[in-house]
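Q: My labmate handed me this sequence with no annotations at all. I'd like to see what the chain might look like in three dimensions before we decide whether it's worth expressing. Could you predict it?
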Amino acid sequence: MGANPGKQDVVEHYAPTNEDQGSSSSSAQARHGTPQITRGNNGASDGEGIVTPLDEIEERHQGWFAYFKTRDFYIVLVLGQVLALCITSTNTFSSLLVAQNTSIPAFQTFFNYVLLNILYTSFTLYRYGFKGWGRLLLRDGWKYIILSFLDVEGNYFFVLAYRYTTILSAQLINFFAIIMVVIVSFVFLKVQYHYTQVAGILICIGGMGILVGSDHITGAADPLNPISKGDQVKGDLFALLGAAFYGLSNVAEEFLVSKRPLYEVVGQLGFWGMIWNGAQAGIFDRKSFQTAHWNSKVGGYLTGYTLILSLFYSLAPIMFRLASAAVFNISLLTGNFWGVLIGVEVFHLHIHWMYPIAFVCILGGLIVYFTGKQVLGDAKKPWLGKNQEGGISGVGTARRKAVHGDTVV
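A: Here is what I predict for the chain of 409 residues:
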């Protein structure tokens, strides 16, 4: 919601809208839950004025390859591969748990939400105070309940898929999340996709097709989890459903982190996710929990799964700010390549010559996606206004560049 020319916005907050406010009296007041009435200039509702309008920043750097000359592009590229490696690692742990006859889809992710809740809700309470946190629940709690439900179900069905299908098949189907992200972003967030972006997405999906072809040629499967054709169809459907939930939750999280502090969003995701996930585990995983094999290996796999997944959840919101949910999911496609590299050591798989080609194809699709983009890339969100006055000035946001100049953090 943009600011009217010649008028000042009056906004009531239950917490600071700038993630790194200092220890001034106003921020100290906000940490203890006292509502603030602040007047913004140029739409800066948190009291920070726009130093450099975003149009001026974009005018300084023109051309089809303007975004490639920025630091943000390389951060997005590297961060995407870190996230892909994280998700591949959690997928590997899921397969290892199934190999130990331990398939507990809901319970498996429960500790991730507990850890996120401990880390981020604690910091949110420190920043807002109990009264401010209570106002957060009353005012915006419903948004986070929906977000956490989508995320929990995405995790549940995707982990459940590993009971019936192979790690490679489940990862390949994950590209459906991209389709969901593009459709939902276009319809609800009014994101306009340039033809180079559409071409980049299609090239990335083509890279996935090369991976599918190589798996068909080699007959790739998970040697620790032999699957019948009937069960594999069921597993693929579960993976498809999980990918749909993931796509919806990614768009919802991108929208929320563009407007609120990272610690608030991730903390609320952990808080409500813990409740949703705990209830679901109690209902659907009781029998699986009783028949599961418990030993030191299973404990180690669950620990590794939880720590890596929590790291993934901590880094993903930064990607949503610097880029978008679409770029996030495109980057995860390279996880199949990393999955095979891990599979060589863990599952004794063999790398087919088509895999490196597919990896390069997916990265090439990313480059095509950003060709023709302006210097801010996808960090400039269309739903936040001309100078992103409807959003927060935080790590990775375009508004932070307008307030602090060309900076990421």
